[in-house]
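Tutorial sheet, problem 5. The two components below are modelled jointly, 675 residues in total.
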Amino acid sequence: MSAASVRAPRLRAVGLHSGWGRGLGAVPESARVAASGRAVIRSQPLALSGDRFRRATRECLLAVAAVEDALEEARLPRAVLSGAGTALLYATASAYGSSNRAFIEGTGVSTLHFPYTAPSAVPAEVAIEFGITGAYLIFLGGAPATLSALWYAATLLASSECARALVLAVETFEECADLYAQGRWLVPRPLVETAACALLEPGEGELSYAEHRPTHAARRDLPLRERFGEAFSCLPLVELGLASAEGRDLSLTGTWRGSQASLRWLETPSQSGQV
Amino acid sequence: MASRERIAIVAAGVVTPIGQDLDAYWSALVTGVSGISRIERFPVGDLRVARGGEIKKIVRSPSFKRGPRSEEIDCRASRLLISAADELVARAGGLPLHPDPRRVAVVIGTALGGVEEGERALAGDRRPSRLAGALYDSPTRNVARWLGAEGATLTVSTACASGATALGVAARLLRSGIADLAVAGGCDILCRFVMKGFDVLRSLTRDEVRPFDRRRSGLLLGEGAALVLMTRERDAPAGPEPLGYLLGHASTSDGSHISAPDPTGRGLEGAIRGAMREAGVGAREIDFVSAHGTGTPLNDQVEAQVLNRVLGRRAREVPVNSIKAHLGHTMGAAATLEAIMSLLAWRHGQIPHTLNVEEPDTECGLDVVIAAPRSCRPRITLSSSAGFGGCNAALVLEGA
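Model answer (C-alpha cells):
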C-alpha cells in the first residue's frame, strides 16, 4: 500500500486525562492488573468553574482539561490558542454515546441537552473556552480516525493554513457500560475513559499516512492496548505522548472495524527514500 | 501535500424527498416541488411540529447487503447511502470503480450517523449488530463495503456542514495522493431522536420554510443522501464531461456558542474566505451563492451579513438561493445536495428558485432568486454551510 508524505509537524506536547489519572506518568504497566477486574475505569470528575459549563457534559469537561494539560506541558499561555491561527481536529469513536442515551431515555437532562448529543459538542466547548476559530475537523471512528486527524493537521501546518494544531480525542464509557458489556467479546477490557490532546507546530521532518482494509495477516495494531486498556480514538495520542517522552519512534498504526491506518512520523528530515 | 489542483466531480447520485436520481431531483428543484409532508415512519403525535422532508419509499432497490454472504442491512441511513451509491455507480460505468480497491476512498459526512440504531438498541434490541450500527461511522462502513472500496474510509461530522467538509477532506486525500478516487458526500435521516431534539429547541416552524423572507420563522428537517465521485483532474476518465470541479474548501469553528451561530459570523466568514483562497477565486469571480439558508431568523441574518462582507458591492448582484424549503434541512446531506444542485445549475443554465419567499427581507441585502428559476449559467459557485457546535464549511465549485 503506497503512503503519501507531507512535512511532519513538531509534537510540542501531549495532554492526558484518563481513568488512570492525570498525565502520562499515571499510565500503568499492565491495564489488566491495574484494573483489578473493573470493566470501566472512570475518569475522575473535574472541577471546572464557571456558569458556562453548567450544561457541559463530562466528555466536554475532560476535553477542556486535556487541552489545559497540553498547554501546561508546553508552558504556553491559554491566549496562544485564541483566534484563527489554531486548528482544532477532534476524533472520537463513541463519546457521544452517553449524551445520546441520556437524551433518548430522558434521564436527568433538560430539553436543552440536545445540542450536546452532537459529536461536535466536545470540540465546540474547547473552541469556545479557548477562543479557537481556525480550521475545524471532526473525524469519527477509533484509532484510524485520530491518525487521519493527525495527517490532516500535518497538511494544514505544512501549507501554513494554521500556525498550530490541536488534535484532540475523547472517549467516555461509564454511562453505556451495560451496552459495552453485551459486546464484550468485541471490546477488550478494561475500557479506560480518556481525553488526550496533542499540540502540534510546524516541523521539518516527514510524515506519511496510509489507510486501507488489510488482509488478516497484515493486520497490526497499537501494542499499547495491553498496557493502557481500550480507549479507541485516544490510544494513538497516548502512544505519541509515551513515545515522545521515551525518545522512541513516533510512528503509529491503528485498526478499527476492518480499517487500518498507519502514520510514519520522522521528526527530522529523512534521507531520500527513507519514507 | 495539498495543492490547488482541481478535483473533478465525475459522477453523482442522490436520494431526496423530491427525487431519487439526479434527473428527478433537478426537475423537482426547478419546478418548485416541495418534499415537506407529515411524517409517517415513526410517531410524531406528541411533537409541536410533525412535518419534514420525509422519503416515503426508497425507490431504487439495489441489494442492501455488504457482500453476497452478508445479511441484509436494515439501517435506514445505510440504505439511503447505498441507494445514492447505486446511481453513482451506474453513472460511472459500474463496479469496480477502480482496478485497485485500496485506491478508492470513501468519505461520508453525517450529523447523526446510525443514531436510530441506537434508539432501537435502547428500546430493547440488544443484538451486537444493532449496537455496532449505533456508532456514527457505521453507515460509512456499510456503503464502503457495498462499493468494494478498501482505501481510506472516513466519517466526518461537522454537524449540518458535514456534507461540505466530507468533499473537502476527500479532495485533500486525492491531492495528497492517498487515494485515486473518492466517493464522498453526506447522509442523514429523519428519526424520532432528531425530530424531538429540534422540536424541544423550538427551531422548527409551524409555517413554511422561508429562507431570507421577512417572515421566516424557522426550519423543517429533511432526510437524504448525496454522493459524488471525485478524482484529480488529470486522472478524470476520457469521455463525457465531468459534472464540474471542486476548487476550494475550508471548515472553521465559531468558538462562540454550542448551538447558535456566532452573531458576528466570523467563523463562517473565515470558512468562505478560506475556500476562496484555496480556489484562487476572488469575489468578482463568484457567479452564484448556494446559501445555507435554513430559514431561521438568526442564521439567515448572519449569513447575509457575511455574504455582504465577502462579496462587497456585488452582494446585490450575485444570485443567491436556498433549497431547504424544497427538501427540509437534510443535515449531513445538505451541503452535498447543494453542491450537486450548483453544478447542475451550470449544466442546465438555470438557478432553482427559493421556495416560499413572498416578502424578501431587504435587510439581508442579497439578490435571492425567488418565484421562478433564473436563466443564467453560474460557472463559479460559492456554497456555504453551518451547524451545531459552531461548525462552518464552504466550498467553491466550478461547472464543467
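Marking note: Residues 270-275 of chain A have pLDDT under 50 and may be disordered. Full credit if you identified this.
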